[in-house]
Amino acid sequence: MTQFNDRIEPKDFAKMPKEYQSLLTRLLTIQADCEIGGPHIYVDHWTLRAPTVDDQWRVAKIAMEEIDHCRKFLRMLGLLEIDRSDILTRPRSKREVDAFKEDMPHWADFAAFGMLIDKVGEYQLEEMTSSSYRPVEDYLPQILREEKGHISYGQQQLEKLVKSGDEGRAAAQAAIDKWYIVGLDMFGTSGSSRTERYIEWGLKRRTNEEARRQYIAEVDPQIEALGLVIPDKLQGRKYL
Known about the structure:
The protein is mostly helical and 240 residues long. It has helices spanning 18-46, 53-78, 107-126, 136-163, 166-186, 193-200, 208-225. It has one domain (10-225): Ferritin, core subunit, four-helix bundle (Ferritin, Up-down Bundle), CATH 1.20.1260.
């Protein structure tokens, strides 16, 4: 099929081919799950244990925004008469994406998660720009603005750790080593046939490999600018 360029309103969803219905539902569900997945990792541990009261406030604010992002995606599913509120109580081990099954024992983990994993989230959200599912445009601009703030905060915290001395630098490097590879895996496997279908139905814009390549080109110089070492991209290799 040629690329689908129509704009679909919720009232038209039931008229669409089953493939479109399945892909859209899957995309919105995974994104909702990812948005709530982050808070389920760090809220209990870092909301009241972050280094300063300002950091504690910031953790709480980030969590609030991520929970609201989840609420927005659940609302978009609700417009299709699909209830996925079950993801709110889903165990971490059952999350859709492996990144949200990880632990976050160190403050450097929270910082690297913000810089690297929320950056992957930004890329995934950008895929929905000009989505064929029209309601996305009602929610996406605010979500993207807030994600940029999360990324910036994580980067600032890593920079503070690097400047704090050898111990802080080592913690920052260890966190980058961990979350960088996790982030690369989040883009999915190269050559995914499902991604091609997303693109043809106007639900995504790039292949997994294109997005990952652009992410690497953007993030690698930022890691080097912090004075840290870019991890070996072949570690794990789940995406190959």
